[in-house]
Structures are given as structure tokens and as C-alpha cells.
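Sample A.
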Amino acid sequence: MATWVYDGSFNGFLCLLFESARAGEQPEAIGHAGSGQPFLWPPKEARTDERLAKQTGDVLRRRLSAPVFTRGYYAFLSALKEREMSVYTYYNLAWTLGKSVDRLLTDPRVLPVHEASRAVLRERHRFLGLLRFTEIGGVLYAPFEPEADLLQLLAGHFSTRLGNEKWIIHDLGRGKAAIYAPRLWRIADFSLPEGIAPSRREEAFRDLWKEYFHSIAVRSRENPRLQRQFMPKKYWKHLPEKEPPAE
């Protein structure tokens, strides 16, 4: 058994699965290449090859079943501690059991992946409604700070929903963004240049939205606990309607 490292992407993880299987080794631990993480022994590195990743993914979908493969992918995107080893263990068990692996819902090799997958889908669903775009320099810009790595799951939706616009969905915590121009999007490292601010037109719309949000509230029926259940406070930072309206 050995420690393996990869580039942190899901395609890189698929290549790691292939390379470790070809070497006949089950990873003892999985880390990120270039992270500076200390290892007792020199780790083995799996290089990312997009073609190999696709071939490996196709094999896993057929052998494990598409739902099992997808559930592992969602768990990989989660904030689950040691998520790579959890997904590796789940896939390894499913290699023998196939789709029946998901009947073992109390198994410690299965339960964490199911819980992490559900958490990712729940957070994605919330951000489909809570993501707020601001017009900056002719581009719609939406900052957010999710727990899971959601860019891949959100970009496809908004490429259809806002297909005629240019937009950027910026994951501030991970320092990367989904960048879209009509008919094409990609994910890349990203930081917003200093000095860029919303246009006056955008500021006017934001003020109208905040005024509308506060004016329709029925004060006698306010229920902060219920509101936080559907719109958790940790997401309020990037919601204009949670700011006080302009004077």
C-alpha cells in the first residue's frame, strides 16, 4: 500500500483509480500533488490524461451502474473529510457488488458517500434560487461561497437559463469561476480585478429589489427561524435583499 497524489480534479482522480489498479495497489492515503503536505514516504503521482479519464469513467459506469458512479462523483465534490478515500472505498466495494452496494445503507463504506452526495445536491438546489447576479462591465457576475465544489453543477443550468448573456459565477473560497460566453463555458482560476464596481443602472435595480423585498414583508407574520431554514444565514452575505434598502 502507498500514498498516491493527483491534481485535485475528478478526471485526475479517475486516472488515479486506473493507475493504482494497474499497479495492483490500494492507496493507503490520497493527497494533492504540490500541496506541500508532508508524507512519510515519497508518494506515487497519477498524471491526468483526459482520454484515460473518460475511458475509466465509461468502464465504471458500466461496471458499477450510472447511479453509483454519479453518487460517488457528487460525494467527490463535497466537503466530506478525506473524500477521495471515501469515494475510492465506495467504488472499490461497488466493483464487486455492483449497484446492490446501495442497499448497504448502514455500512461505513457506503453511508458517508450517500450523506455527502445528498448534501451536495441539497446545496446545489439552494443556490439555483439564491445565486444573485450583478452587472459589472457588461458581464453578469455572481459571487458565492459554497461548502461543496458546485461550479460544474451550476454552470450547465445557467448556460441554458442565461444562454444569451455573458456571466461569471465566482467561487470565492476556492478562487475559481465558471466563465460563460454564449454557447461556451469553462472553469478556471479567477479573481476579480480591483476597482471594478456595479454600474449606476445596476445599483438602481439593486435598490429597487431591496425596496420591493422589504416592502412586501408582512411584519406581523415574520418567522426568522423558518426563513433561516429555507435560506440559511451563511448564504446571506451575497444576497442584496438582506441589505437595508437605500434611503
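Sample B.
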Amino acid sequence: MHEVMLALLRSFKTLGRGRVWLLLLGPAAVALVVWIGLALFFLETLIGSLIEQPPLTWLAGWGALWLAKFAAVLGGWLLVLAAAFVTAMLLAALFVMPLLLEHVAAADYPELARLGKDSLAAAAWNSISAVLLFIVGWLLTLPLWLIPGFALLLPILWMAWLTRRTFAYDALTLHASDEEWRALRRQHGFPLLLLGVILALLTHIPVIGLLTPTLAALAYTHYCLEALRRWRQGAVVTAGRQPLTEKEAT
């Protein structure tokens, strides 16, 4: 938990640098304009399509037509917001993340050697595959939204997973070797997901929610580079230890 809070605090401190705000606002603005524009034309069609699908047809058949319509409207807007979030996530991962990583690494972690691979294709595939899995998982779990509380819980968990899957890899691909990446993923699996949950909760805050994808890129950059720095420092300390002599051991 300490590492998560440290990453968030450093992220907000980094926002004090004026240049970062240009990167922060770009994906949110583009995604918002695109998807609100599309919603004006296709939202009614989307809602009508949802209400014709089970389990909403079951509700209508049981006489709860008002509940089916409400669920369809809620589902339609949630899908639009999710699409905007995913669009901003892709834009942040593909175009903003490399610039943020370069800026933060040079300013805050200059001692970290780059032992990874600078592969745009690998980073792009990681982001696109994560989004595809996110969409499939979102659609498959839509019926669970009828269970009380799940309509709030599932979107947060899915966004947390998508955020972790996208930015944890991108933050380390340039600096960490394959061995270091596997070790850090095992050691920090839960904190990385917890960071995603916190950022997913921020998506529900007006204005700040629109900036969450780029803020996530910044937070995961700080978390992962700090984790890598500590990992290497631990490796150096371990490698520097000499075995005890028989006399010292006694």
C-alpha cells in the first residue's frame, strides 16, 4: 500500500510541471468529443438493441418493462462511457505513454539503465489485445449487472484490470529485462491491481475521471520505475555479500 500511495503522490507532484498537462489533456479531449458526438446519433439505437436482448427481454416478459428500459438506458450510457475510456486509454498508451516515460525517467530515475526493448509493435499489441479482452469480458459479464451491486463493482474491476494490463507492461518495457519484468510482475501483482482499482474509482469523479487514462500512465510509470530501482538495488546488495567464514559464523 505504501508503494501505491508513493506512486500517486509522485504523480501529482509531476503534474506541477506545465509540459505534462499538455500530455494529460489530449486523450481525454479527443475521446470525449468523439464518443459524445457518436452517442447523439447512435445512443437510441443502442438502447433499443439492448432492450431486445436477454436478460432484459425476460424482465419485460415478467411485466417489469420499466426496469428493462431503465437497465437498457443505464447499460447504453455505461457502454458509451466505457468506449470513451477505452479510446482515451489507447491514445494514452500509444502516443502519450512513450513521452511521459521519457520525461519521468530522465527527471526522476536517471540512474536506471535501459535493459529492455524499445518495441512500438510490442507495446501496441499489448494495448490492443488488452482492449479486446476487456471488451469480451465486459460483454460476457453484462448479465451479472442485474445482481444488486454488480453494476458498480464489475466496471471498476474491469477498468482496473485493463489499466494494470496496459500500463504496467508499457512502463517497464524500455528499462526492464524479461527476467526483471517477470519477477516484478510476480512480486507486485496485487499492488499493481490495487493501483488500477484506485484509478478506476477516480473515473467516477467529474472532470478528473476524463483524465484518468493519462494519470494512470503517469502513476504506473512512477510505480514501476521505483519498483525496478529497488529491485536492482536489492540485487546489488545480495550480489555484494560475501559468505561467512567458519570463524565468523561461530
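B remarks: Confidence is low (pLDDT under 50) at residues 237-250. The radius of gyration is 22 Å.
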